[in-house]
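Narrative progress, year one. The postdoctoral researcher (J.K.) led the effort to move from monomer predictions toward full complexes, under supervision of the PI. The following entry was the first complex the group processed end to end, covering 1139 residues in total.
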Amino acid sequence: MNEFIERNVRLSWHAAKRSYEVVIVGGGGHGLATAYYLATRHGITDVAVLERKYIGAGNTGRNTTVIRANYGIPEAVRFYQRSLDLYASLEEETGRGITHRQKGLLWLAHSETGIRAERARAELNTAFGAGTEYVGPDEIKKICPQLDMAGGGVWPILGASYHPGGATARHDRVVWTYAEGAMQRGVHIHQRTAVTGLIMDGDRVTGVETAAGPISAGAVVSAVGGHVTALASMAGLRLPIRTHPLQAFVTNRYGLGFDPIVSSSNLLFYASQTAKGEMLLGAEIDRQPSYSYRSGHHFLQSCGHRAMTLLPFLRNLRVLRQWTGVCDMSPDYSPVMGKTGVGGFYITTGWGTWGFKAIPVGGEQMAELIATGETPDLIAPFSLDRFARDRTMADRGSAGTH
Amino acid sequence: MTNDKSLRLIVDGSLVEFFAGDNALVALLRAGLHPSQGGCLCLAGDCPHCLATVDGVSYVRTCQVAARPGMVIKRHPSDAPPPLPVGDCPGTDIIARHIYCDVVVIGMGESGRAAAAEAQRDGKDVITLDAAAGQEVIGIYPGPLVVARTRDGMADVHPHGEIVVATGAAEIHPVAPGNHLAGIVTARAATRLAVAGIDLGRVVAIGTPPEGIAVEQAAGELVRFDGVDRVEAVVMRNENGSERKIECDTVSIGLGLCPRDALLRMGNGLAVRAVGAAARTSDIPACPRAGTVCHCAGVTVDDLESVRARGFHELELVKRATLAGTGTCQGSVCLPYIRSFLADRGESLQPPFTARPVTRQLTVGEAAASSYHQATPRTALDGEHRRLGAQMERAGGWWRPWSYGDTVGEYWAVRKGVSIGDVSTLGKMLVSGPGALELLERLYPTKVATLKPGRSRYVLLLNERGYVLDDGLICRDDKTRFTLTFTSGGSSFAELWVRDWAESWRLDVRLLNQTMSLGAINVTGPLAHELLARAGVGDPPQYLHHRTATVTGILCRVFRLSFTGEVSYELHHSVADSVTLWRRLLRLGADLGIKPHGVEALLMLRLEKGHIVVGQDTDFDSTPRRINHEWAVKLDKPDFVGRQAILRTDKVPLDRQLAGLEMEGPAPAEGALIWKGSDYVGFVTSSVFSPVLGKAVMLGWLKLLEGELPAELTIVGRPARRVPTPFYDSEGSRARA
């Protein structure tokens, strides 16, 4: 009996209409959550989500599903903590399982400067409601007995910040839960529908072009991952986004026995065990910008080696599969959300390596913005015009890993 | 074939004899054991049914490993995945060999041999990789690079020309109730087992019969396999719908072929070509009616029906909703059936799902073969620091002496006497050539042309967004030659940065990174003049001047500057002389009370002077204005990197700024939050208790409140004040003395 077979969600597909109140480009987590919250919180159901492949085919379905709020600036801590809370209640709200597991997240320090950084993280998180504490070697060993505290004799573990709220959820189930919830309330989701252009009326966006013809819309939301700069340029916008690949791999399935999420800033890798029992390992973004989903061998070698240094039990586990997603990196490592200065065109992007964590709050806040026309306080700091206004939000807590 | 009593391996704790030439699977079958209790066996590395734990490694396809005396095989639990290993898992480091060639041929069946022979006839240097010879290709990567697991480590094969995939085709497995039983084998497997001398008993063949074996051919459509644990009969349905039960000991399955084209699909866009059966299109079996489709994840035909009825129509969504195809065999067994199922339910025949590495199983240890950690470099004086009892720490990407055990004593040696510090880790770069001045003028926000030979100046390095990348000195040696210094942690990036711009602007310059070849010792303290005089430099350079001098007989470039706030001379010299120079300076200064100082003392000294550490006190969006360094930026010079951005942001009101802070009592931890009443206004980036001032001094980020930097603050529950920097010797008279 395979407990991971989806037995609850029911997706109902519709024929495309020529016009919607809201068209959301991108059927990933953010696009679908935006549709869901438009429908459930604001009663706006004349909504279409357009997806060029299948729902969750992009980076939502490729990411490593870490949910955390231990960021480095108050605005981000509050924002991601809201997301953590929404994730924790999503199963109850929808009656659907998303395989949500609260695991606790250790962020390891291997030097005096690393210790200071983790202490600072704990202090800031605690002040703004994210619950992170600094822990010493004895507690670390209790939380994760598999760690080699000597770090293979190379990177000894001296301390860590511990974020008990750190969690994971199954990415696909998050996608389907939001998709079903939106569809049940009348939202249309159209797969295999690539947007090829934006329809402009003067300096206002009034719809989208697709291979199947034009669709007009009162509002168009870009929830695109990867080719977002290309889409925004159709509205005459230049986004400060560079897209970089991010890779990961999993081992075959083993019995459950590795409880937390473990991360190292110095070694730039992180590890967790999936609900299925695979050990999931990831590292930092590729330095070279690219839209490519092709996996690299150097990543497999290097990430495997770094992970094995701190987690020697990994050595004889057998690798199952590696894969690649892409990350839209903003200059300050914070998301870019809200109005764009172009009428009728909204954007949610800059999701770097932190997009999955923010799906619920991102969708909730974008929906409120579209429904009310007012930018909610929680996302006001992340507006696109912050770059022009010199109000950037540099966030040291946004690792380029997960 | 002989039965040699010494050929024994251990299966689940019991001794099992095998024959020379057996693979582990054949050895198990010879003993009447099925490695995973049941399921159709292919003996070709395609299916998941012969997986077991071999010598401590789980998920090993027993059909792909030769049986060895003493080999320890444990069957996976029948109802759960194998457990995670506990405790340390020592193992030898595995080597990856790099092999360069013209053509790689993967698979050495008939078509592979032909392709290899043809390439060799054309004079090509050919490498062949054959899974049957233990060379299992795990993936094709950009490069192009073909990575194989071999019996003596990993092989990274780099072909200049093409990659030929001659991996053949896999046999399609049966999907019907009872397909989990033992005694079901593919037709090719049946032949191989018979050749190996395994007694198959009464064999019934479905579809294409095995070669060289007497079988009873079962006509019609497969309905189910009957039996407990092991197949006892197979039930077939003929054209008029009647069922027939055929008793047997073994069922041979010949339901068609599916190309092993995962490597071909993975290499999409690279010079990869399939030949032979790997190039064929897949047979699509009849749509399954019942039974397990995916054995790795335990997915039945009913499960496929269930998720399809729930709106999961795309192959990729069906895969994700059931996990079919995501297990060890990566869809080898189930993919033809899922495609057949979806085509039958009215969808078109959908292309196979994405092929990803790895195509064959390897361990994390094997994947990491020949990897190494980027070494944290040590200076030439590392041994000296250790000999002096220093606590070594990684800082700025180097091992550096954090403290020699008496940080405050080291501090006072600088403030009151004389001290030396190892600053070899500073980035050092020589820039020369006709274009040198223009390069630096365009790169730096300072007026480089006004810098006279023999003089130095503090500079910021900015990016196009006007954010601070690094800081350091620019020192003019003569008309066309400059020495640049960078921070220890920033120098690698800075080198790339300078080279990139020099290249972009096509300037005629020579760039020489001397970070590793030059050592640097900082002589600092009010008695530094005295020590330098004793070392043979009676007329040292003035503040922010530099010149060549012989110090204790060693040729040095002497830079007068100050990070500590006291008189300081930075002695740049060949790393070969570092130890001698260090020891001679310590000896010459012994009666002056000389002590070396570590990084911790240095951070105290510089903070008293309000000097920033880029990366600690700055963020990756720090403009000069935000860190109170506008004085280092000359906007009235022609363009430089970051100028346009600064001109733009200068028009915008400031939102936050790095400021000096002080408070009574012990220093709060770096990262401490700064409050104005109940409002958060920022955090502390650097913090020490100043011995000379008797209070805590800090740098920290402050938000402007209604256009003003707040002055009276609270940090760790105690009152703190914003104050101008430097905290100590604000006129800078000590450094210039």
